Amino acid sequence: MRITQHEIEIRVRYPEADPGGYLHHANYFIYFEMGRTELLRANGRSYKEDMESAGRFIVVVRTECRFHRPARYDDLLRLRTVVARVRAARVEHEYSLFRGDELLAEAKVVLCCVDKEGQPQRLPDWMLDEPA
Amino acid sequence: MRITQHEIEIRVRYPEADPGGYLHHANYFIYFEMGRTELLRANGRSYKEDMESAGRFIVVVRTECRFHRPARYDDLLRLRTVVARVRAARVEHEYSLFRGDELLAEAKVVLCCVDKEGQPQRLPDWMLDEPA
Amino acid sequence: MRITQHEIEIRVRYPEADPGGYLHHANYFIYFEMGRTELLRANGRSYKEDMESAGRFIVVVRTECRFHRPARYDDLLRLRTVVARVRAARVEHEYSLFRGDELLAEAKVVLCCVDKEGQPQRLPDWMLDEPA
Amino acid sequence: MRITQHEIEIRVRYPEADPGGYLHHANYFIYFEMGRTELLRANGRSYKEDMESAGRFIVVVRTECRFHRPARYDDLLRLRTVVARVRAARVEHEYSLFRGDELLAEAKVVLCCVDKEGQPQRLPDWMLDEPA
Predict the structure, then answer these.
(1) How many Å lie between the alpha carbon of D93 and the closest alpha carbon of chain C?
(2) What is the pTM of this model?
(3) Looking at residue B73, which CATH number applies to its domain?
């Protein structure tokens, strides 16, 4: 991938916030997934077309997340997604979620490329030719 | 189907309630789907095994829902699912959601049986042999 | 409200689609809610600031939806929201969801304005001064 | 808390699985939250009554999760929740998710007790009197 960093804006939806009024922590992982999907799209690639249609699937193997400050309903957030490491069948992204300049959460998600049987497969070449 | 009415209990999960403190209205439809899945299971059938694995899919074609009183986080609800009508490719269920004796919501959901291409298909025989 | 019709674009997220590959029907109602929130914002109003902070809440009392064709993961959809009727404590919106020129779903959602105790309350004036 | 380990069963719902057919990774965190809620209930406590109504809220400050094998739609899973550490304002649980004897995922979630302003607060006594 040529572009290894990307930012998107996300507006917190009403049902994504919980009775405490905060964006529920499970939903951060949906945002992170949107971040890497849009990073792929910024590279002219589509997860649906270039991966799934080729019999390659991305599964999440590990996540780590630190929640510094809560996001709330209707907040307009900014998510930065960075490709941190790419190796054979694995790719690792780092995520930073902001409201304005305020850092709300930081995360790392490790993905593995598998086939329909769930066996690890080398990532497609266009994902591996990351600039050193 | 021999059993045409079934009840299940559902505990409202934290992220299913919204900042207003109420079970978000979209989630009622997830509960209704659970109701018809368990009605199927009470008949010794599984949507996954008996439908999807046979290349038959159920799509929702119409919903109507009236919300009488709100449900809240941690409420223990009781959902009654009734087969209201079965015809060729279509089945219609009616749902009543209770907290104790209090009726919270009533709904009707019309389903259509389709193949992988989305073409309507006759429901499997075991679904059509509904007692008159 | 001066503006009584509004359109937004929505990209179908991965977890919003189900194992059948289709946008799950419950999620349409989340999209419709986004549609009316953005219609409000187009009128210079915010549900969070102008309603909730004033002790007024919107609850859904009735929904009707017809699903004509399925949406799929990664589809870019266009949702049109129209104020259909405003009366005292109730407002009714109509929704049309499109992929390109293809109509995927049509819905009607009836909302009621309530206070913290759930008692119906007249809608704020700025919501009632709808052009005849 | 007297009981520091608890197990619950969870049936994977249709919309919790994604187009790949797998339980979406974000939903694991909803399951873990159910696990700690039911552990609390097994101790005769309710998050809603004993915490929120007392102006104490639990926020998630850190999560780590390893996904070993995928869960699928309609799988009946077993979640084990263990209190791993309790200190002043923080409590840490460990989670193991099984399908039969197969370990699907392991996680750690660190919670912090806060007041309405988000300031850390000592956990209620009944949470701290954990057996050494």
Answers:
(1) 26
(2) 0.96
(3) 3.10.129.10
